Amino acid sequence: MSSDDLIRIDTPGAPDGGPEAAQPRPRSARPARPARVRIQRRALHGVLLLDKPLGLSSNDALQKAKWLLRAEKAGHTGTLDPLATGLLPLCFGAATKFSQVSLDADKGYRATVQLGVRTATGDAEGEVLATRPVAVDAAAVAAACAAFTGPIEQVPPMHSALKHQGKALYEYARAGVTIERAARAVTIHRIDIIDWQPEQARLVIDVLCSKGTYIRTLAEDIGERLGCGAHLSGLRRTRSGPVGIDRAVTLEALAAMSETEREACLQPPDVLLADWPRICLPAAEAARFLTGLRRRVTHPDCAQVRVYGPEPRALLGSAHVQAGELIADRLLSPSEVQALLNSEESTT
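Given the sequence above, the corresponding structure tokens read:
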């Protein structure tokens, strides 16, 4: 008899270990466990442009979308802070091979900057460290934004997911430990002032920047340049590479759809490569390219191209061109190519 078949009963007058202390219970008397529903996962290939909600981590958003789509393999394309909303491309199946493309792509953000208040974390959740009067006009605000346009250096904030000896910096920050961080080079391509409200000392800007740019650091730096300090009070990602927020779907909307409608929300994997030059190969050359062989092409040298088979819609992978040779970087398998073709046929 296993230990699961015994129930420990402590009663007055029943000596420890006596006959009344351990009574066998028939298996039939056990409470029935609720049946666990197993989700049948399936192979899906494509990109879901998700509009991540406030307060949810990127991984939590990924897991919710993966569950709704019953997908086998999925990954996100770089973290978006829980306090930020907006575009989070999620890659499924074959599309995960191109997730690094989205990681490396330029990003677009709409940021709300509160001038006059510095916080411990650089955002609205941190403890207020200092408040200062804001005596600046629109011209000064424009000049401060212009000063941070172009190649700049930023020191990553302590409240960030950047790793140090295997731990995220925010873990050290929560423990009251400050780690020395080296400045890193980033590029801010443009800053557009969307709204400036001097009465509330609130600034709304659109930022187009390179990967690795910390918008909360940018907000703090703008505040320091204006002499009043600032923190980031709101952030929304609006663009990642060639894709924008206008094509994104919320988790709430996704949950309300049928399974067929959810699957129809998946964009083809090459949506992440849409701004790359395209090379189309004839059938015989496409087959050889898929085996990893270099092919001769009449195309100028190029660091990034997307490659298609006999039909423009048959994505084969990504490559680069050097000295007239097409050299594969990331290849789809023949089964993945066929799965993508079948998926497109079913939606047309």
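Residues 334-346 form the longest helix (13 residues). Try to locate this feature in the token string yourself.
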